[in-house]
Amino acid sequence: MRKLCTLMDSILSRRAGLAGADSDCSALVRTPEAEASFCAIHAATRAHPVHLEIENSAVPGSYFLGKCVVKDSVLCLSDLRGDELKCAGAGGITRDETIHVQGSYLVNTLVHANSHDPGNPSEFTIRDSIALHYSNIHGAPVERCLLKPFATLDLTTGIDSTIGTFSYVNTGRLQNESVGDGRIWMAGKDFELKYSFHPDVLRRYINLDTGDVGGIFVDFLRARQSDFREVFSGKTLPRPCNPGSYANPYAVLKGECALGDRAFVAQRAYLENARLGDGANVQENCYIIDSVLEGNNVSAHGSKLICVHEEKNVFVGFNAFLRGAWGKALRVGEGCIVAPHTIIDLDEAVEIPAQHLVWGFIRNGKDLEANSVALDDLAKVTGKVEKGALSFSGNGGSFVHGFQHRVEHILEGNGALCTGDRHHGHAQTYCDVVFNVLHPISGGEGKGMLPSITIRG
Amino acid sequence: MRKLCTLMDSILSRRAGLAGADSDCSALVRTPEAEASFCAIHAATRAHPVHLEIENSAVPGSYFLGKCVVKDSVLCLSDLRGDELKCAGAGGITRDETIHVQGSYLVNTLVHANSHDPGNPSEFTIRDSIALHYSNIHGAPVERCLLKPFATLDLTTGIDSTIGTFSYVNTGRLQNESVGDGRIWMAGKDFELKYSFHPDVLRRYINLDTGDVGGIFVDFLRARQSDFREVFSGKTLPRPCNPGSYANPYAVLKGECALGDRAFVAQRAYLENARLGDGANVQENCYIIDSVLEGNNVSAHGSKLICVHEEKNVFVGFNAFLRGAWGKALRVGEGCIVAPHTIIDLDEAVEIPAQHLVWGFIRNGKDLEANSVALDDLAKVTGKVEKGALSFSGNGGSFVHGFQHRVEHILEGNGALCTGDRHHGHAQTYCDVVFNVLHPISGGEGKGMLPSITIRG
Question: Are residues B121 and B152 both part of a single domain?
């Protein structure tokens, strides 16, 4: 596998900083040897342009949808979901939007580019960057960045920046910044919201002490890894999709699962004894175990629910981890917003009242009291408030209504609001999906590299 | 599926003659609607160049191996097996050999190009041609030809010619000729061999009377068609290959089957209660049912054995049909050659003595007596002989030894003669094969067309 090793060297050489400031991550940037034989999946539907170009790259176990171009990169067990990109002609734009990945290394990373500027084609380039385990790149370009494990860059252009482990940034733009570990940071035109995790708490859930990713999150994921390895080995069959709802065959459904109308389950989601009400959606790398989602729930990329009962219209942000247990269940009231990267890991039963925002690290009712606020109260804020781990400043109404608007947009995009011919979303447009299965070179110098592939509809 | 219909029209318009002289076939040239959703399979091994280009074409249910380029063509349930093509560098040649299909329509057709000129790259082009159900194009270019159902063009360049139903031509070159139905014609430098079927016999086995292909052969194949439809639907899984031998996962194995060392079973072969001895090979569209092949047997493309016991080193030619039954089995002696397109359909048990050539239409011992000759006797012929349906003229030794040499070459090519590191053939080189699965466009104007695809190793 000389070619793959050379490619890895070439990617790393463009990230010379990594060996210094980011030395705790350098051990995580590895040539994917064990995964070298995994096939890649290219999903094609009638609703999305069939366009895939992969050149001088290894993409074992990865999944592509929409217009994607990958060059000189290693994408291991990653997802590129360009299903919300605009096509030439839409809104008068003159060229298709495309996810371009160039000179980058992504491992277990979700890239979901959705298009926001109605009049102009956006650029979704990931260049000379490294995104590590269970990181998310959502909706904006990234150049010369390092995303540490479980980091999320959401609607934020990242340039020459480092995002710490389990940090979440949604600030529109980030340049020459180094965001520490466990920091959650959202900023809009007229507000800013921040909270962070105590290093000891963070270390319990994710740590890089041993030169590998460890901790509760990783143990949880590793225990379920073999289900996905089987799905992406090409040795098992995709399941057919349900009429009325859509569960991607490259998701795992175990135990007793039920899906309501217009429910949507993305590839690489994991459901075990999960009941999804009408219009509920579960995105990539989500785990829904022994849980009920009553309807129109959003489980954003990488969020995990164990023994959770969600009433309707609950939003759970990227990489949030919500774990109850039998006898100490978590109930989340209608219309609640669980901030991205929140950890709720219960010692006792907890019920979050309806229409609340929660954040931070919560183990019991007392923590919840400290780390939650009624959305109505937050909407009245006009200055600076601090509560529990949270620091908020600016226009609370702008934050609350903006967030609720985004949730509505996500529900529409996923098909939850479909009424016959109107408001089609993923749950409807995926129903004619087919999967091209693409194998890497199986031996010799090229082992693990994908042949150069072009598929154009 | 407007694009596919337009493509069909464009292919047919280049075959203007079809409506006149070939009107009995025009109904058979149909837009593949029922098959439009079948996926195509691209096999890749370390031993063969990974190179596939498909443009403006529909290839439902088709299978590709080796360097293949397909443009402006419809290939329905067909096989392109370029695994014996030479690569640039081999024997000093300067460019890869490639199967090129352009402006053609192939249905259930096997194209197997093997390379014969050691010093020069051969051209394997199929251009502006139509090859119908269960026809074979083997090892040479074909331009502006019509191959009717079950026709075989073997090592013969065909230009502006028509090959009749169930006819076999191996004459090196054919230009501006119309070969009638049921005619078998081999010619070498210093010999010529011919036989033909009575029209009534032929009509029983294949007829086009109803505007479709009918008759015993077709009934036999249709009864087993659903097994293959399942394999190529993408809804079932390829089986793993056997160590020591190789059975392609896109073959069907039913009942009790056993494969000896170095046995080779190609894609789209069908085995049911079949025992293959060491080094036996079974090629595309072969059916081996309730039969035993003792070892180093060759079952050429499209041959069928039902209740047959073959001793060692038996060769059965293209599209031959050998059918015994319980209580009236057929036994074929060691080293026999069953001529291409022979029909042995028994009313009583028959035993072909070792080292004989058989041909024509045989139902019993009397027919066998008329339509067989000891290879030793044939090798002594130097003039013209007629026996049963056969007419032979020229150097019998040249024919017999040439044929035996070809059989040896086929055994070597299929890996039957492999001894450790030497004489590797298909049974060995396929063991690391992987299968890219490629889906046609599922709806709209492009329905049934494959997206433009390029895969280069």
Answer: no
What pLDDT, on the 0 to 100 scale, is given for residue A233? 66
What token pair was written down for A264?
């949507």
Q: Are B409 and B371 contained in the same domain?
A: yes
Choose among B364, B9, B321: nearest CA to B134. Answer: B321
Do residues B301 and B402 share a domain? yes
B133 falls within a domain = no
pTM: 0.92
Q: How far apart are alpha carbons B366 and B368 in whole angstroms?
A: 5
Q: Are residues B248 and B324 in the same domain?
A: yes
Please identify which residue in the block is written with the tokens 């048990």.
B349
The alpha-carbon gap from A452 to the nearest alpha carbon of chain B, in Å, equals 5
**CATH number of the domain that residue B169 is part of:** 2.160.10.10
Q: Residue B330's closest CA among B303, B356, B315, B311? A: B311
Q: Which residues pair with B158 in a beta bridge?
A: B142, B174
Nearest-by-Cβ selection for A455 from B50, B235, B451? B451
Residue B378 lies in a domain: yes
**Which of A432, A435, A439 comes nearest B443 by C-beta?**
A432
Q: In the predicted model, what is the mean pLDDT of residues A230-250?
A: 70
Same domain, B50 and B86: yes
Task: Pick the residue from chain B with its C-alpha nearest to A234.
Answer: B237
Residues of A with a Cβ under 8 Å from any B Cβ are: 39, 44-46, 50, 234-237, 432, 434-439, 441-444, 446, 451-457
Q: How far apart are CA A260 and CA A276, in angstroms?
A: 6
Nearest-Cα distance to chain B for A321, in Å, is 36
In tens digits, chain B (457 residues) has pLDDT values of 899 999 999 998 877 555 445 667 888 889 999 999 899 999 999 888 899 999 999 999 999 999 999 999 999 999 999 988 888 887 778 888 999 999 999 999 999 987 767 677 888 999 999 999 999 999 889 999 999 999 999 999 999 999 999 999 999 999 999 999 999 999 999 999 999 999 999 999 999 888 889 999 999 999 998 888 777 766 555 555 566 789 998 999 899 999 999 999 999 999 999 999 999 999 999 999 999 999 999 999 999 999 999 999 999 999 999 999 999 999 999 999 999 999 999 999 999 999 999 999 999 999 999 999 999 999 999 999 999 999 999 999 999 999 999 999 999 999 999 887 788 888 888 888 889 999 999 888 999 999 999 999 8
Residue burial B229-258, b: 16+ Cβ < 10 Å; e: rest: eebbebeeebeebbeebbbbbbbbbeeebe
Find the CB nearest B444 among A46, A444, A446.
Answer: A46
* Structural tokens at position B450: 């494959």
Q: In chain A, which residue's Cα lies nearest the Cα of B449?
A: A457
Assess if residue B23 is contained within a domain: no
Rounded CA-CA distance B33/B196 in Å is 35
Interface test with B, best of A4, A59, A230, A441 (most B CBs within 10 A): A441
pLDDT of residue B242: 62
Which of A50, A235, A451 lies at the smallest CB-CB distance from B50? Answer: A451
Distances (CA, A) of A327 to A294, A331, A349, B114: 20, 12, 7, 70
Do B245 and B98 fall into the same domain? no
Nearest to B457 among A39, A436, A441 (CB): A441
The last residue of one of the domains, among B160, B190, B213, is: B213
Chain B residues close to A435, C-beta within 8 Å: 437, 439
Structural domain boundaries, residue A70: 2-218+433-456
Cβ contact (<8 Å) for A452 and B451? no
Instruction: Decide if pLDDT at A209 tops 90.
Output: no
B457, A439: Cβ pair inside 8 Å?
no
Q: How many domains does chain A have?
A: 2
CA distance B204 to B401: 34
Whether residue A287 sits in one domain with residue A211 = no
**A232 occurs within a structural domain:** no
* Chain A / chain B CB contacts < 8 angstroms: 79
Yes or no: say if B218 and B204 are a contact pair by the CB < 8 Å rule: no
B interface with A, Cβ–Cβ below 8 Å? 39, 44-46, 50, 234-237, 432, 434-439, 441-444, 446, 451-457
Contact B457 A446 (CB under 8 A): yes
Chain A: closest CA distance from residue B139 (Å) = 27
Q: What is the ipTM, given to two decimal places? A: 0.88
Residues A274 and A375 in one domain: yes
